[in-house]
Amino acid sequence: MQPVPIEFLSEGVCVRGRFFAAEGTHEPTTFLFVPGWPADPDDFLGLGPLLSQRGINMVQFAPRGLNPSDGILTHAGTLQDIRSAMQWLRQADVHKRFKVDPASLVLGGYSYGGGMALAYAARDPAVRRVISIAGMDHGELAREMQRNASFAAEIFPWVILPLRYHPTRKPQIRIAIATTISIGIQPPSSLGLQQDKKNPHSPAIT
User: Within 13 A of 201's CA, how many CA atoms are on the CB side?
Assistant: First the structure.
């Protein structure tokens, strides 16, 4: 079964993804999956077809700022996108179209998405089940960048280059902003970063 393209609004930003419908189950468990960096739209782990064949819905979306969604990537934005995705899944028309049982939602993610899934679950008591696959500790990453300037200089190209040279679009991104921490490190100018005027510690690709 082919996945169905989906989209929903998150704070007015269009977030896009794909819905892999469960096969042979009346009201299956639905797994909301937040992908790893930089949100490969081709289901990098191959979980969509696998779970679908085993009677589980899987919804994968790209947080704002990552292909193919609109907007600028921030940690706070990704958390809001998860909330918006959960709200979308609980809508009556989505229940009718995709056989989503709001009582059987599972949140999860891989790498970047795994860390964000855990961070979101910690603040939303409605999330009863969460799965993190090689989840990133974003707070520790930000602290290490504060402590270690050479590490910070090395990590910026690793984070940015997969996005800058994406063949179909040039995304916008703010780098390494934890929800309660701003790292306060200026990236190398050779990376083509510009400062976000609203937050002088949030470099952004434009």
Answer: 13
pTM (two decimals):
0.74
Strand 172-174 relative to strand 105-110: parallel, antiparallel, unpaired? unpaired
Tokens representing 142 are 């930000």
What is the residue type of 184?
Answer: G
CB atoms near residue 46 (< 10 Å): 9
Could you report the per-residue pLDDT of 29-70, keeping only the tens digit for each? 999 999 988 777 666 788 999 999 999 999 999 999 988 999
- Could you count the other beta carbons within 10 Å of the beta carbon of residue 8? 19
Q: Give the pairing type, strands 72-73 and 57-61.
A: unpaired
> 3-state secondary structure string, 63-114?
CCCCCCCCCEECHHHHHHHHHHHHHHHCCHHHHHHHCCCHHHEEEEEECHHH
Residues in contact with 27: Cβ distance below 8 Å, sequence separation at least 6, in sequence order:
99, 100, 101, 104
- Read off the DSSP letter of residue 43: T
Task: Give helix then strand counts, H and E, for the chain.
Answer: 6, 10
Site of tokens 């961070």? 119
CATH number attached to the domain at 4-136: 3.40.50.1820
Domain extents for the chain?
4-136, 140-205
